[in-house]
Amino acid sequence: MVGAPGRMQQTSAQFDRASRWLLLVVVAASALALGSIPPPALLVVTALATLGAAAALFGRRLAWSSVPAPAWVILSLTLLTLLQLLKLPAFLQGALAPANRDAWDAAFSVLDETTPRWLPTSLDPGATWLEVAKGWLYACIFITAAGLGARRGAGYGATALFGCVLVFALVCLGHGLVEATRVFGVYQPSTRGTGFSVAPLLNANNRASYLNFGALCAFSLLAMRHPPVSRWLPGLSLPLFLGISLLTGSRGGILGLAAGLIVLLVLLRPKLMKPRGDAIAPAHLLAMGAGLVLLGALFAAGAAGPRLKHLLFEQGNGKLAVMATAMKLVPAHFWLGIGRGSFESVFPALRTSGNTIASHPENFLVQWLTEWGVPGALLALVAFALLLRPRNWGVHTSIPACGLFAATLSLVVQNLFDLGSEVPGVVVAGIAAAGVAWGARTGKLSRSPRRRLLLPVVALVLGALLLRPTYVLGRDTLERDRESLVAELAAKPSWTAFRGSVRAAMLRHPAEPYFPRLAAIAAWRDGRQNPVPWINHALNRGLSAGRTHYLLGAYLASRGHRPQALLELRLAASFDETLVRPIATMLAGLTQDEHELLRAVPEGEEGARLLLALSKNLSAVSPELSTNLLRQAASRDPNAGEVRLSLVRRLLEDVERRAASCADAASCLKEAQRLLDGAEAGSTEAIQLRARLLMEQDNAAEAVKLLNDECPRASRRMPCISSWVEAAKRARDRRALHQAMAALESEDCSGSRCAGLYWAAGLAGTSLGDRELALQYLERGATSQGSVARWREVARISREHGQFARAAAALSRARALSPNDAALTKEFDSLRHDTVEQLLRK
After folding, report:
1. Which pairs with CB-CB distance under 8 Å and at least 24 residues apart come from 741-750?
2. Which residues are paired to 633 by β-bridges?
3. Which of 356, 292, 273, 295 has the alpha carbon at shortest distance from 321?
4. What is the dihedral of CA 690, 695, 699, 703, to 10 degrees?
């Protein structure tokens, strides 16, 4: 019979086991469930983490004083976040957070409502509720992980976390091997990638940081003389982790991994030097590590191929600009911040150009400064720096603790450039590592001699109280509201109904400029409402939003205010290069006055792109104006290859049709030569234009020589061969024609895309007097295209050359395509009559 102490110990062990498994489930599931970014996934893992923390508190029978200090720090910061949701008197918010007050005032003003007397500090209350849930999740994870570390040690914790990352890596590998386009075959990412770019952690940088975390844990297990698991498991997993991490192309991930490896080796050095310590021989570890890293690099190179160079070295550096711009929020929101989670809706007010969404500033320090305010951010930074010093991790006595510390440090370093601290799936792993190391190091989670129900009950009650408002207020995220309003607008609702939906979204996200822009579209469509106040509010919250300027320009143009419309379209082109084509279309419809058009075009590269699009739109209506606009584009951006080649093409066309703009043909040809001299030499279009220019200069033989040298190595050979055929025809060079067609044959060209080339070669052969070759290619061209007109032309040419049988065969093919064509039947009868006469004469 088991006594009361024995039953209590047995019950505690059961709760400890339950908390351990709940911890592992949460760590693994939080990454696999799209990083727990979707609110439903976050709520589920938070509920599981709450149960795990309650089980750990009950199993360890902890007193209030035994709760780990870092957990109290996390809870304090969570409380700070919760305070941002409390409504303050408007006058007090105006004093402490005037920019926040202005954002609320502007939102209520455009809604034609009075600003309430009490307002929350947060400019996105729903997103802030989600951040409160994340804070509670992290505190629960730390408490549970500390209990695991105190009971099982850092080695067990490092192995468990390594196992969670291994599961994630195997899922990534599976997606890559089957070339998946959906996560788990269900969720379609907006990026529309395939293979290794599709994974439960959608962001490549987050994926790299998570895999690097697992790689450093695996490396520390390899360093142990007697690891908790067989050495082959982390040994085989390490190349997998590193290979998939490299495939992401995350430079921040490489930096974080390098920092983690350096710190890990520094921490392991004293232990490796001990002849009979817990670590394996240094030479063995370094050789093993170098070999596994090389295997990982080879895996990435084999999977990505030539793309790996682009992924690692040829991506943009827009993140640094976002960080620098985001820092401008700090003075305006110094004391209280904009509210945790509010960055995405507030940042457009400072964005300088483009239409991209910046959900985070890509640096956790900048994130804290803007969202918590300077006092809150400094408090968080100092608290974590003091509580999570290396010595608190037990790095001096435990090899696995060194791995946990280095793995978490790699996350911190990468979060200076690639923000993952807002993704629960990544942060949970780091918090769990810290909790395990803290519990194993301090061992202060001592049991009380009697059961303590208060703490676990409080944890359960607080978790339950938190989940309800988080679900109600956090489910309408900014992304969801955007998508729902766009879908509603597409359904053409009444103005009253749509205004109500916009109002609800604006009260959830008062600083977001997208909603008033949609309201302006609906108001304009209604015809009885004035969209200008909505547009003005959208510009107030996002002055550099090119699409809002485009909308205002279109509205002003519809009201006959052309000068103002041209100005707005100029601003739209300056801020958003993706609008070049619609802006060019609208400008071409507004005016064909060159001076007016130039006033609507910005300077520099943006202006050159718009002028190029305008030139294409106006080429048929006003060729001379089109040419002048291309000249303006070339002067604004002399290095733009597409502009230079387009102008050369237009000059050659003007020379051919004897346009007024090229009345002096020699001058135009000289200008074209100058432009081509500065263009990219190896492009197919440049080769074609050089040949065309030589032909216009009556130097077809030199054009043939150029094409004979360049076409075989051109990137797009078919257009080049087409020019080659034309040059051979003009130069009356049969040998060049044969060479061009031999190059065409080597392309294994077939089908309709080659019909034009065969036909051109046939006509060229006809003009050169090579009758047999001409008819051969004409027949191939007609066969490829399957056209009645082509076969009739083959019949005509065959008839002219006295090949009546060949002509009859061509007309038979034509009649098969159009059996009811009376004219074709008459032509066939006439041919048959001529054939009979010819036979009789013979």
Report:
1. 741/777, 743/711, 743/712, 743/717, 744/718, 747/717, 747/718, 747/721, 749/718, 750/784
2. none
3. 356
4. 50
As a whole number of angstroms, the distance between CA 150 and CA 438 comes to 8
Amino acid at 142: F
SS3 89: strand
3-state secondary structure 60-87: HCCCHHHCCHHHHHHHHHHHHHHHCCCE
Is 220:406 a contact under the CB 8 Å cutoff? yes
Place of tokens 């408490």: 143
- DSSP, collapsed to helix, strand or coil, labels residue 443 as coil
DSSP character string of 224-249: BSS-SS-THHHHHHHHHHHHHHHHTT
pTM here is 0.87
Contact partners, residue 212, CB within 8 Å, separation at least 6? 241, 245, 253, 256, 257, 260, 407, 410, 411, 414
Distance (Å, whole) CA 240 – CA 233:
11
Neighbours of 101 (CB within 10 A): 20
pLDDT at 15 (0 to 100): 87
Question: Which tokens sit at 79?
Answer: 């409380």
Question: What is the predicted pLDDT for the residue at 838?
Answer: 64
Amino acid at 133: A
Q: How far is CA 349 from CA 92, 99, 512, in A?
A: 23, 11, 9
Give the pair of three-digit tokens for residue 554.
């279109």
Tokens of 580: 């070049």
The CA distance from 796 to 793, in Å, is 5
Q: For residue range 33-81, what is the model confidence (pLDDT) as tens digits?
A: 999 899 999 999 999 999 999 999 887 766 677 788 899 999 999 999 9
Instruction: Give me 559's structure tokens.
Output: 């009201």
At 129, the pLDDT band (50, 70, 90 cuts) reads very high
What lies within 8 Å, CB to CB, of 776 at 6+ separation is 762
Q: How many CB atoms lie within 10 A of CB 627?
A: 23
**Spatial separation of the C-alpha atoms in residues 194 and 247, rounded to whole Å:** 12
Supply 378's token pair: 């400094």
β-bridge mates for residue 297, sequence order = none
For residue 226, what are the CA distances in angstroms to 220, 230, 578, 735?
A: 11, 9, 59, 77
Q: Is the pLDDT of residue 1 over 50?
A: no
Determine the average pLDDT of the residues in 120-136: 97
Is-contact 264 220, C-beta < 8 A? yes
3-state SS track over 604-660:
HHHHHHHHHHHHHHHCCCCHHHHHHHHHHHHHHCCCCHHHHHHHHHHHHHHHHCCCH
**Cα separation of 703 and 627, whole Å?**
25
Structure tokens at 791: 């076969």
Element (H, E) at 308: helix 307-313
Q: Is 683 left (phi over 0), alpha (psi -120 to 50) or beta?
A: beta
From the number of C-beta atoms within 10 Å of its C-beta (0-12, 13-18, 19+), residue 753 rates as exposed
User: pLDDT for 236-259, tens place per residue?
Assistant: 898 899 888 888 888 888 888 888
Question: What CA–CA distance (Å, rounded) separates 821 from 594?
Answer: 51
Cβ neighbours around 641 below 10 Å, total: 14
For residues 620-635, give the mean pLDDT. Answer: 91
Closest alpha carbon to 570 in 549, 544, 554: 549
- CA atoms of 644 and 596, how far apart (whole Å): 23
Helix, strand or coil for residue 472? helix
Per DSSP, the chain holds a count of helices (H) and strands (E) of 39, 2
Range with lowest mean pLDDT among 13-27, 100-114, 672-686? 672-686
Average the pLDDT over 785-802 and give the result: 81
Cβ neighbours for 815, distance < 8 A, ≥ 6 positions apart: 821, 824, 825, 828
